[in-house]
Amino acid sequence: MQARTKYALFLAALFVLVLALRLSVSFANGNPSYESYFTLLQAEEIRETGTPRYHDALSYEGRDYVFNPAFYYLVAFLSLFFSPEVVVKVLPNVLLALLVPLVYLISHRLTNARAPSLFAAFFVGFSPIIFSTYINTAHPLTLGLPLLALAIYGLLAVEQQPKRALVFITLLALISPLAWLIVATFLLFSLILLAERLSMDVAYYETALFTGLLTFWWTLVIYKRALILHGFTILTGNLPLAVRAESFSDFTLLTMIVSVGAVPTALGLYAIYHASYVTRSRRLFLVTALGLATLLFAFLKLLPLTTTLLVLSLVFSILSAHGIFQFSLWLRKTRFEAFRTPLTLGVLLFFVLTSLLPAIVAGIQPLGGPSEDELATMRWLSTQEGAVVLASPKNGFLINAVAHKPYVADEAFLLVNRPDRILEDIDTIYTTPFTVSAVELLSKYGVTHILLGPLENARYSERSALTDDRDCFPILHKGAVTVVYGVACALEVQQ
């Protein structure tokens, strides 16, 4: 059997293994995540009307959404042939499993060596952060990451195949905001080459200019209204301070090692050192620049921690191929060549212990989707005439998609005025011991039904007027893990 065929079979087997494990974990965890119900909502709207739902009359006082619709069109198209619930489980896992062959191709373009490239594909397939994230969530980032990998693949050969690189970059720019990482990568790449006194081919300049202009124009097309309303706060999604602190938590080296894996991190750092002081390879500098751009965005709080770690895992998996390749060349020049097989097995065993097993353990943990009892409660709410529901913002999309009732807040904060005040009011209603304070705020939002389920119990564990005052807040519905309270009191207005 030819080496090329043998490695192709190994790669195909690795892809199938990664996908099978991801799907088995996803389907073993029941319903899609809470966040996936926004995707289901948009896919249903596209199937029925041909366009996404940009205006939502069910949210508090009605509100508009702003987002790139490409991912939702893809889900809607596939939903014509398969159940939407199956699509939102299968599609994200297929897209992230595609990183396996993509990283192999990128690594092979860097090293021109099959074995190190296969190792890199193995690392990305079982990266703790990639394997355990979005395994049960249909999120646009699951499409953005493979497109980012395609863009890297095209850029590594932009001098020889500029048209292919432009096609891949255009897809990324039109579909995912991760295109801004490529723009920053070009800037840092040019600075690195300048510091190293290396020239940059004119194809890179042309591609950089095209990428910057296209990404800037498309961002204005989609987010113009949000830019006018929020200004620079759009860079953090107009998130309330409490949510921002959670999403943009501080990046640390230990967090990266645990999330990316100790082996890819060590090999990737060695590859960066080797590129800087030995080979001075432009291609390695380009991949390194992507990693630096990601760290810069994280430092400036422009990239959530999860997204930062996902991109860094992709970058270090690619760089690890060069680290393995150079390490194997070094072995050939030493007396340790005879120990190549034991050393290789040792590295694999260390990766299994520090990355593969933690990834699988993280993947099999409960993935946070709504239980059947919560869905039954949503269906009960759908029968309540005139209901306006108060719940955790994380429950907002579920209420919208299943109960079809007005609600106070969800997790989409763009084009929302004063989101901090809304979250503060919700916290007060669930925690205040004073019935008057709770009723006053409930009247402000016109709430008739208050949901207390797993999400609310996890956040608001202390006793409050809501749980103690049965006269004002009678129980209307009680399930195994959910309770719905009514609002029987109102404030009297003095004449």
Would you kindly provide a written description of the structure presented here, covering whatever features stand out?
- The protein contains 23 helices and 6 strands.
- The model has no long low-confidence stretch (mean pLDDT 88).
- The protein has helices at residues 3-28, 36-49, 70-78, 84-97, 99-111, 114-125, 128-132, 141-155, 162-175, 179-195, 202-230, 241-247, 253-260, 262-279, 282-299, 305-332, 340-364, 372-381, 396-403, 419-431, 435-445, 454-459, 465-468; strands at 55-56, 63-64, 389-390, 449-452, 475-478, 483-486.
- It is 65% helix and 4% strand.
- The strands form 2 sheets. It has a 4-stranded mixed beta sheet with strand order 3-4-6-5.
- The longest helix has 29 residues, at 202-230.
- With 495 residues, the protein is mostly helical.
- The termini are far apart.
- Helix 18 (372-381) packs across helix 19 and helix 20 (419-431) packs across helix 21.
- It folds into 2 domains: 3-364, no CATH class; 372-486, Rossmann fold.
- A hairpin with a 4-residue loop joins strand 5 (475-478) and strand 6.
Attribute tags:
65% helix, elongated, single chain, Rossmann fold, two-stranded antiparallel ribbon, 6 strands, four-stranded mixed beta sheet, 2 domains, mainly alpha, 495 residues
